[in-house]
Amino acid sequence: MAILTIWNITHSCGHEVTHNLSDRAADRRAGFARWLEGRDCTNCWKAARDSDTESKEAWLAAKRAEEQQAATEWAEQFDMPPLEGPQRALEWGERSRHQLVVTAYGALVSEGTWDEADWAVLEDKIRIVTRAGWWIDQRDAEGSDLPELLDAATSDDIDTENPFR
Q: How far, CA to CA in Å, does 14 sit from each of 35, 37, 45, 68, 130?
């Protein structure tokens, strides 16, 4: 007798859907069919996901506002210059700079071997990189990589104004 490839699944939402499970190994079809029974059908899952868009957007907006507030307060506290670039990239760049620098401080000073004098030198380098896009591009970098990344910054990324505050 051949092992079933077509399964009629009654999903947890109550809809019955015919699934072709022939792309799965024969010994894995029954387990997958049981797993499908515990889930909404594709149409109900998509409808639930799409209907919750407003609350996701509200949560994301609140999260971004909170991060932006922290980045702005941090930039003022540590005398960081404003970033340059397209208007839509400025806030994202500020948040990215804040997150990377705070992570770098933790990795290099709090948990690492650097002292405050070493950090002060790096902080001066941080101040001269003012292109928002540069900070956005580095958003996934490890904090411990910040010194090397700053050394690699080009003249397009660095402010040409007086570097001394």
A: 15, 9, 12, 44, 56
Q: Rounded to an integer, what distance in angstroms lies between the CA atom of residue 133 and that of residue 68?
A: 16
Q: Record the tokens describing residue 89, joined without a space.
A: 């990239």
Which two three-digit tokens encode residue 15? 């809809």
Q: What percent of the chain has pLDDT over 90?
A: 75
pTM for the model: 0.66
Residue 7: which H helix or E strand, with range?
A: strand 6-10
CB burial class (10 A; 0-12, 13-18, 19+) of residue 7? Answer: middle
Pick from 128, 139, 132, 125: which is nearest to 84 by CA?
A: 132
Tokens representing 66?
Answer: 């909170």
Confidence of residue 106 (pLDDT cuts 50, 70, 90): very high
Pairing of strands 16-20, 6-10: antiparallel
